[in-house]
Design brief:
heterodimer; A: 309 residues; alpha/beta; 8-stranded mixed β-sheet; 11 helices; B: 444 residues; 434 Repressor (Amino-terminal Domain); 7-stranded mixed β-sheet; 21 helices; 7 strands; disordered C terminus
């Protein structure tokens, strides 16, 4: 099993590097003095990786300044310099918000995000991950809007052997969460993972619904929800920043799950999110299987992005 | 919020007024800004590069009309070139064959299943044909249940394919069913897949051979970033896609992916998904999309929404009152309610060009929504006479109204001041030439 994960990740990473390398062209391959166009190429490559125009321009400007000051002289210094900068960027936010609420029981994790990012699948994978660390988990099907979302989660719950709390379609998501927490308390379960309905962050009413879910969870368990993870599709462009901002403001997001990183997705938008919103990535989704969720590793991610392996 | 291209260009080249032609200098300055604006809207880097070259060719030496600034002129060239690239006009789908087969393909989570149901409903209502939904997503758990439920909601017959686990067998069953029962359109919902997954891409090719679809529609998420080009290209190379459906356009994504996808596929974008409800599928309008990508505001959609929310008779009455400057609290209340009917304030505001700058940090939020509600409550607590003749409101009346609406006298006063300001504003607008007003609103 471990080998297939590695293989999958490698395939994903492979796709990622060829892309960046193609864009960055000679900048990373050349030796000798740095020329202006090398940094332009890096800027373009960052933009092409969805790192956002603002951040890409800033990073490129930093490099330009360092070239001007004589700190960077040779083209072969460019890649390590950029690599170090990107890892720092991701690391700086990693430290600032470690998962909280370990002491509370049950620990409540809320998965939020726009439609179609992979919340339901992530809920199942996360449940499996938690269980592997010896914790007992309950899944809550709080996506009561999308047709057959409950059935989808039920399939996963049966498959990985985790109990699922659900109500009818159209039920109040907060009520489902209330039930799930009550059930977890009754059974002495360690974790409640809540799958919520996908919603665009511009829909005020639906965002309000999340606030209610939060409130109900917080009333039942001190400090809940302890983790609110924004599930973000790695192919998302600059809108990912808006998503993180709005979900951050109303749902109290404290981490990101970057999904669909297999294939060609690059997920450079998380650099912009780390930079502007200080939100760390916690997990990456790399496939459709129940084991295809890996802890995020800044070094690995940046290496993949810059094709340094 | 991103500022509109025109404002940006205006800032950069406003010093260059009064020249008769667009000079290289104008254009280079402008093109730099345009490049950034397009990249910020998530248009693919390579697509931006070729686009910029095309605009340069078109723009050099162009005469600047006396009535516009160079910034407006360049914006116009960019806008029309963008409209052109997005397909100029709205494409209408026709359905031929017995049955006409429509195959929906795309990445996971792009919205194929929901779109299948919406499309079926659209075909039934707008084309008056009888569609049949065939769920063939055998990968995602409960995907077929989802389409069965949606089909039921949309009142569209849906084949129960849950007994089969092979999409090819499902395709055959669907075709048989459609032919025997005489359905005119068969909509085939496939599983989402990655374009690098050769095995699954091969499967789509086999399905296409069986189904012989009239339309292979690529369903793409409007929020996609730079990667949109590669996935669209891969699907197109394998399947010869005939059209594109852009989903989740009801969000605030600028939707540069539309241009990227259109550029690589070279086939029209036919529909836009604009909400979760089953009627939230619209034909795609290149002009509006161009405006949106450029951050020019979506005036046409706004106008349409306003028209939907406010019937014509009321509009006429209001207009007459405006002319006589008799706008009173009853009218204000009607206006407030109309605005609220149009959707969340934030969305409405974003559609107005230039409004993005005027909006408070963090957008128009609940505070403003709440304020609208309070204003409504205040007006509700007035007598009809008070609403029509606000000048009779004295201290004790105001106190009563404040108590009745759960607000304060201060708030009542503020509302009255606002009414006064609106009257003044409308008086001024009444004198403005409607053509100028329209141009100010960006409607040309």
């Amino acid at each position: 099993m471990a080998r297939t994960i590695l293989a999958k990740l490698k395939r994903g990473l492979f796709m990622t590097h060829t892309e960046f390398l193609e864009k960055v062209g000679e900048a990373f391959r050349r030796t000798g003095p740095v020329e202006a166009r090398h940094i332009d190429q890096i800027e373009d490559a960052l933009i092409a990786a969805d790192a956002s125009v603002t951040l890409s321009v800033r990073l490129a400007d930093e490099l330009r300044a360092r070239v001007r000051s004589g700190e960077i002289q040779n083209a072969e210094q460019l890649r390590p310099a950029l690599r170090k900068r990107l890892v720092e960027l991701l690391r700086s936010v990693e430290e600032s918000s470690k998962p909280t609420g370990q002491a509370h029981s049950p620990r409540v994790t809320l998965l939020v995000g726009v439609n179609g990012t992979g919340k339901t699948t992530t809920a199942a994978k996360l449940a499996k991950r938690y269980r592997e660390t010896g914790r007992s988990v309950i899944l809550a099907a709080a996506d009561t809007f999308r047709a057959a979302a409950v059935e989808q989660l039920q399939y996963w719950a049966d498959r990985i052997g985790v109990p699922l709390v659900h109500q009818n379609e159209g039920a109040d998501p907060a009520a489902v969460v209330f039930d799930a927490i009550a059930r977890a308390k009754g059974r002495g379960a360690d974790d409640v993972i809540v799958d919520t309905a996908g919603r665009l962050h511009t829909r005020a009413n639906l965002m309000k619904e999340l606030e209610k879910v939060r409130k109900v969870a917080g009333r039942e368990v001190p400090g809940a929800p302890h983790d609110v993870l924004l599930v973000l599709d790695a192919t998302t462009g600059s809108n990912g920043i808006e998503q993180a901002q709005r979900f951050g403001a109303t749902a109290g997001v404290n981490g990101v799950v970057l999904t669909k990183l297999d294939g060609t997705a690059k997920g450079g938008v998380i650099l912009a999110i780390a930079e502007s919103l200080k939100l760390p990535v916690r997990w990456v989704g790399i496939g459709e299987g129940e084991d295809d969720l890996l802890p995020f590793d800044a070094d690995e991610f940046v290496d993949a992005l810059l094709a340094a392996s | 919020m991103l500022e509109s291209l025109q404002d940006r260009l205006g800032r950069v080249i406003k010093t260059l007024r009064g020249e008769g032609h667009l000079t290289e200098y104008h254009i280079d300055t402008a093109l730099r800004e345009i490049r950034l604006a397009l990249l910020e809207a998530d248009v693919n880097v390579d697509v931006v590069r070729t686009f910029i070259e095309r605009v340069r060719e078109k723009a050099v030496g162009k005469e600047v009309l006396s009535s516009v600034t160079p910034a407006q002129m360049v914006t116009k060239i960019v806008h029309s070139e963008l409209v052109h690239l997005l397909g100029d006009t709205t494409t209408d789908l026709n359905f031929k064959g017995r049955p006409a087969v429509v195959m929906l393909v795309g990445l996971q989570g792009s919205g194929k299943t929901t779109t299948a149901a919406k499309l079926a409903r659209w075909i039934r209502q707008k084309k008056h044909l009888f569609p049949l939904l065939v769920p063939a997503d055998t990968s995602r758990p409960a995907a077929r249940e989802q389409l069965l439920v949606l089909g039921k909601q949309a009142n569209i017959p849906t084949v129960d394919t849950r007994d089969l686990n092979d999409p090819e067998a499902i395709a055959k069953k669907g075709l048989r069913e459609a032919m025997i029962k005489g359905y005119q359109v068969l909509i085939f919902d496939t599983a989402g897949r990655l374009h690098v997954d050769d095995e699954l891409m091969d499967q789509l090719v086999r399905l296409k051979k069986i189904l012989k679809p009239q339309h292979v529609l690529f369903v793409a998420d409007a929020m996609t970033g730079q990667d949109a080009v590669r996935s669209a290209k891969a699907f197109h190379e394998r399947l010869d896609v005939s059209g594109v459906i852009l989903t989740k356009l009801d969000g605030d994504a600028r939707g540069g992916a539309a241009l990227s996808v259109r550029e690589v596929v070279g086939k029209p974008i036919v529909f836009a998904g604009v909400g979760e409800k089953l009627d939230a599928l619209e034909q795609f309008h290149p002009e509006r999309m161009a405006g949106r990508i450029l951050g020019m505001g979506d005036v046409l959609t706004l106008v349409e929404k306003a028209q939907e929310s406010m019937d014509e008779r009321r509009a006429k009455r209001l207009e007459a009152k405006l002319k006589k400057n008799k706008f009173d609290l009853e009218d204000l209340q009607e206006q407030l309610r109309t605005v609220r009917k149009m959707g969340p304030l934030q969305q409405v505001m974003e559609m107005i060009p230039g409004m993005s700058k005027a909006m408070p940090e963090g957008g128009v939020g609940e505070a403003q929504e709440r304020q609208l509600k309070r204003m409504d409550a205040i007006i509700n607590s007035m007598t009809p006479k008070e609403r029509r003749h606000p000048q009779i409101l004295n201290g004790s009346r105001k106190k009563r109204i404040a108590r009745g609406s759960g607000t304060s006298v201060e708030e009542v006063n503020r509302l009255l001041r606002q009414l006064g300001q609106m009257r003044k504003l409308m008086k001024r607008m009444g004198k403005t030439n409607p053509r100028i007003l329209k141009r100010q609103l960006g409607m040309r």
